Amino acid sequence: MSAVEEPVGSRRSEGRSEGRGPIGVFDSGVGGLTVLRSLIDLLPHESFVYFGDTARTPYGPKPADEVVKFSMEIADLLFERGVKLLVDACNTSTAVALDALRERVDVPIVGVIEPGMRAAISATRTGRVGVIGTVGTIGSGAYQRAAREIAPEVELVCAACPGFVEFVEAGELDSEQVHILAERLLAPVVAAQVDTLVLGCTHYPLLARTIADVVGPDVVLVSSADETAFTVHRRLHDEQLAAAPLAASSARHDFLTSGDVAWFAELGGRFLGPEVETVQAWRW
Ligand code: DGL
């Protein structure tokens, strides 16, 4: 399936406006399931359809225009499945594609960068905040822009952490090797004496123990997952899109992956938990 060139525009079905459709959540792979975990916990009445682009992961090292194209293709397919709201759970995609996605599909779209930044700004006491993410996310300057808009007085130190994603996917969360890499990559945020650190990548919450060992116990680690879920909750209510509470028992969660189904199901269980039951294959 190729990207549609024209914006999808104002296609909004009745079901969506009455709060009946599922919420779409997507990521370059399984990492966005950390965001889905928070969403399911906060919004038990809602149904979700999750798309993990595991055939084309990782997005972090890819050029921005490629990530924008992939993100738009995913938004199109989730729109076609009737989602009433879309969550871009991938930091790299949020960093480069959020504006393009908002132009393309006519449903509310929530990314992970602004919620994470807001949480960090409320948490900091010294005004020195660190952000870590993929090469694509940090290089895009999206966190830097968000900080300037929300709290220009905050001193921001950003560091790309290539290699972290691969360690997490290999299940190496606190090995000596990952520790050595973390010491090297986190050196700039340690030197800047930040008191708050945004884990600006879907995979990094799984490395929280190693990261905390390196930056020290006094640094508050902020994962965007919970903050993003609060933002979604607010948008659903503001836009009268929330599912009726009675729908709790009928909430269902669908999973699609562009890559290997068995791999997604295995790794997905680690990132999300028992909700990953059946996974459908999607071929581009
Ligand atoms: N999901 C990506 C992110 O949050 C990490 C994995 C990747 O590079 O695709 O930036």
| N→C terminal distance | 5 Å
Oligomer category: single chain
CATH class designation of the largest domain: Alpha Beta
Structural class: alpha/beta
Q: What would CATH call the architecture of the largest domain? A: 3-Layer(aba) Sandwich
Number of structurally distinct domains: 2
Radius of gyration: 18 Å
Instruction: Report the order of strands and helices.
Output: HEHEHEHEHEHHEHHHEHEHEHE
Helix content: 40-55%
3D shape: globular
Q: Total number of helical segments?
A: 13
Structure described in brief:
44% of the residues lie in helices and 16% in strands.
Keywords:
alpha/beta; Rossmann fold; 2 domains; 4-stranded parallel beta sheet; 44% helix; globular; disordered N terminus; binds D-glutamic acid
Overall description:
There is one protein chain. The chain has helices at residues 14-17, 33-42, 64-80, 91-104, 113-123, 135-140, 142-150, 164-169, 176-185, 187-191, 208-215, 224-238, 261-271; strands at 23-27, 48-52, 85-88, 109-110, 128-133, 155-160, 196-200, 220-223, 253-257, 279-281. It is an alpha/beta fold and 284 residues long. The chain folds into two domains: 3-111 and 226-281, Rossmann fold, CATH 3.40.50; 113-224, Rossmann fold (3-Layer(aba) Sandwich). The protein has a six-stranded parallel beta sheet, sandwiched between helices. A four-stranded parallel beta sheet has the order 6-5-7-8. Helix 2 (33-42) links the parallel strand 1 and strand 2 (48-52). Helix 3 crosses helix 4 and helix 5 crosses helix 12. The relative contact order is 0.19. It binds D-glutamic acid.
